[in-house]
Design brief:
120 residues; alpha/beta; 28% helix; five-stranded mixed sheet; 5 strands; 4 helices
Length: 120
Protein backbone atom coordinates (compact mmCIF):
# COMPACT_ATOMS: atom_id res chain seq x y z
CA UNK A 1 0.00 0.00 0.00
CA UNK A 2 1.48 3.38 -0.96
CA UNK A 3 1.93 5.96 1.81
CA UNK A 4 -0.98 8.32 2.26
CA UNK A 5 -1.94 11.46 4.10
CA UNK A 6 -5.21 11.12 6.00
CA UNK A 7 -7.35 14.25 5.82
CA UNK A 8 -9.92 13.80 8.56
CA UNK A 9 -12.59 16.44 9.03
CA UNK A 10 -16.05 17.25 10.29
CA UNK A 11 -18.24 19.69 8.40
CA UNK A 12 -21.82 20.73 9.11
CA UNK A 13 -22.33 23.30 6.35
CA UNK A 14 -19.70 22.18 3.84
CA UNK A 15 -17.06 24.87 4.42
CA UNK A 16 -14.60 22.58 6.20
CA UNK A 17 -15.31 19.80 3.67
CA UNK A 18 -14.38 22.19 0.83
CA UNK A 19 -11.14 23.09 2.63
CA UNK A 20 -10.34 19.37 2.99
CA UNK A 21 -10.88 18.85 -0.74
CA UNK A 22 -8.65 21.82 -1.63
CA UNK A 23 -5.89 20.58 0.68
CA UNK A 24 -6.21 17.15 -0.92
CA UNK A 25 -5.83 18.70 -4.38
CA UNK A 26 -2.53 20.22 -3.27
CA UNK A 27 -1.25 16.98 -1.77
CA UNK A 28 -2.09 15.09 -4.99
CA UNK A 29 0.81 16.94 -6.64
CA UNK A 30 3.36 15.20 -4.38
CA UNK A 31 4.80 12.16 -6.14
CA UNK A 32 4.50 8.90 -4.25
CA UNK A 33 1.94 10.15 -1.70
CA UNK A 34 -1.76 9.31 -1.88
CA UNK A 35 -4.54 11.04 -0.01
CA UNK A 36 -7.42 9.56 1.91
CA UNK A 37 -10.22 12.00 2.79
CA UNK A 38 -12.49 10.84 5.61
CA UNK A 39 -15.15 12.35 7.85
CA UNK A 40 -16.96 11.44 11.08
CA UNK A 41 -20.71 11.06 11.64
CA UNK A 42 -22.83 13.60 13.45
CA UNK A 43 -23.78 12.96 17.05
CA UNK A 44 -25.69 10.95 18.10
CA UNK A 45 -23.78 8.31 16.17
CA UNK A 46 -25.50 7.09 13.04
CA UNK A 47 -26.24 3.41 12.57
CA UNK A 48 -24.79 3.44 9.06
CA UNK A 49 -21.15 2.75 8.23
CA UNK A 50 -21.45 4.89 5.10
CA UNK A 51 -22.65 8.49 4.81
CA UNK A 52 -25.29 9.25 2.17
CA UNK A 53 -22.88 11.64 0.42
CA UNK A 54 -19.37 13.03 0.72
CA UNK A 55 -16.30 11.33 2.15
CA UNK A 56 -16.55 7.89 3.81
CA UNK A 57 -16.45 7.64 7.58
CA UNK A 58 -13.00 7.21 9.09
CA UNK A 59 -11.88 3.96 10.72
CA UNK A 60 -9.18 3.36 13.30
CA UNK A 61 -7.28 1.51 10.55
CA UNK A 62 -7.26 4.67 8.39
CA UNK A 63 -5.62 6.50 11.26
CA UNK A 64 -3.25 3.70 12.20
CA UNK A 65 -1.83 3.22 8.71
CA UNK A 66 -1.57 6.85 7.55
CA UNK A 67 1.84 8.42 6.93
CA UNK A 68 0.63 11.84 8.07
CA UNK A 69 -2.55 13.38 9.45
CA UNK A 70 -4.48 16.59 8.84
CA UNK A 71 -7.46 17.36 11.08
CA UNK A 72 -10.15 19.84 10.03
CA UNK A 73 -13.00 21.16 12.11
CA UNK A 74 -15.27 24.16 12.32
CA UNK A 75 -14.63 26.08 15.50
CA UNK A 76 -17.34 25.80 18.12
CA UNK A 77 -16.88 28.36 20.91
CA UNK A 78 -13.12 28.20 20.35
CA UNK A 79 -13.03 24.38 20.40
CA UNK A 80 -13.06 21.43 18.03
CA UNK A 81 -16.52 20.24 16.91
CA UNK A 82 -17.97 17.53 19.16
CA UNK A 83 -18.27 14.80 16.46
CA UNK A 84 -14.55 14.97 15.64
CA UNK A 85 -13.63 15.17 19.31
CA UNK A 86 -15.83 12.14 20.01
CA UNK A 87 -13.98 10.08 17.38
CA UNK A 88 -10.55 11.17 18.64
CA UNK A 89 -11.50 10.22 22.20
CA UNK A 90 -12.02 6.63 20.96
CA UNK A 91 -8.42 6.37 19.65
CA UNK A 92 -6.75 5.74 23.01
CA UNK A 93 -5.59 2.27 21.93
CA UNK A 94 -3.62 3.80 19.06
CA UNK A 95 -2.02 6.43 21.27
CA UNK A 96 -1.12 3.93 23.98
CA UNK A 97 0.43 1.47 21.51
CA UNK A 98 2.53 4.20 19.87
CA UNK A 99 0.86 3.63 16.47
CA UNK A 100 0.80 7.37 15.81
CA UNK A 101 4.35 8.15 16.94
CA UNK A 102 6.48 10.11 14.44
CA UNK A 103 3.56 10.86 12.11
CA UNK A 104 3.54 14.50 11.04
CA UNK A 105 0.22 16.22 11.69
CA UNK A 106 -1.49 19.55 11.18
CA UNK A 107 -4.89 21.19 11.66
CA UNK A 108 -7.19 23.50 9.73
CA UNK A 109 -10.36 25.23 10.84
CA UNK A 110 -13.20 27.38 9.60
CA UNK A 111 -15.50 29.73 11.43
CA UNK A 112 -17.66 32.68 10.52
CA UNK A 113 -19.21 34.37 13.53
CA UNK A 114 -17.74 37.21 15.56
CA UNK A 115 -15.73 35.61 18.35
CA UNK A 116 -16.62 32.19 16.92
CA UNK A 117 -13.08 31.01 17.44
CA UNK A 118 -11.24 32.45 14.44
CA UNK A 119 -8.95 34.27 16.85
CA UNK A 120 -7.72 30.82 17.97
Amino acid sequence: MPPYILILYYSLTGSTAKMAEEIGTGIEHINGIDIRIRTVPDLPQLDSDTPSSGAPYVTLEDLQHCSGLLLGSPTRFGNIAAPLSYFLEKTASLWQSGALTNKPAGCFTSTSSIHGGQES
